[in-house]
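Lecture 7 notes: from sequence to structure.
We start with the chain below.
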Amino acid sequence: MQSDFVSIPGLRMHYLQEGTGEPVIFIHGFPETSYEWRYQMPHLAGQGFATFAPDVRGFGKTDKPGARMSRSLLASDLIAFMDAKGIEKATVVGHDWGGIIAFKVAIDWPERVTRLALLDTLCTVWAPGAIHGYWFKAEPYPEEFFAKHHSDFIRAIFAGDTELPPRPLSPWQIPAGILPRWADDECVDHYVEAFRDPMSQFHAISQYRYALPFHVVHEDASIAGGERYEALSERQVAEMWLHPEGLEKHPRFENYMDYGPEDRARRFEKPTLWMYGSYLGRSPSGEAPTTATTDVPKGNPFVDQFSRYFPDLRGQHVDAGHFFPEEAPDVTNRTLLAFLKGDLDRKQ
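Predicted structure tokens for the same chain:
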């Protein structure tokens, strides 16, 4: 793979590139870099696609300017990258935070996106069980945690061989040896080194704290669209995390927060793929959504958001964890290639 840099307004962006043909742009998740796509890019390049994987601002070798993050800013970076590379339209593939960015690109610039693939990610609805979303807004806990435990954090989520501090300092309570180790030493070392940079930690915190402003969605028949939105400040969300009886006992915890209410009435009409791992957003009571005979789960606001936003949706379950592009590259590659070739049926 070719490693190079391109200048966009206010940012020098690093990216990987391989292959020629129809363009496919990969957007990595947190706490990863473009390295995440080392299995997908060669596979698709060998099938006649031009693949690109930038490091998003604040991560990898891309500039870390320290600006306050927003979904619009991160999405506009991707459009500027496409402009700089002379890419008029592309399939956009995003995992985790990369999916949040990819969604915003597709919703705001649908004319630039031919297909959209979202891998273990979300659109605008946050699942209550993803408790790190509350923790990130509770300054100074994330700052102190990453300053002291950035290496342990990477080892815990990628290798499963390290335990992290208890709440409220950390939301990740993963006993050592519980998770299967799929990441090799090279993978772990890459992410440890990349996340060692305090400015990468700063941008990660800024993404979660400011680019995902939580809103409570209230049904209201008197308003066009039938909904009104109650914006919560970072302090209000932090108070949920620090509730004396625990986050789960806070009266707002049962809500599926929405961080993009301005997009809730919008739709992306082109072919969309949603791939999801073995864990999905559960309800506050612990109930899992149902899959029945369809590949598109239904049953709570988190999983229902995909059918809401994408009329031309197909789904694919992957029997692996959250990082399945790296943990299960073969099924990821096969599914993406079938989607790109139009061989995946739409599922309702």
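Points to note: Residues 161 and 176 are 5 Å apart (CA to CA). Residues 2-213+255-340 form a domain with the Rossmann fold fold (CATH 3.40.50.1820).
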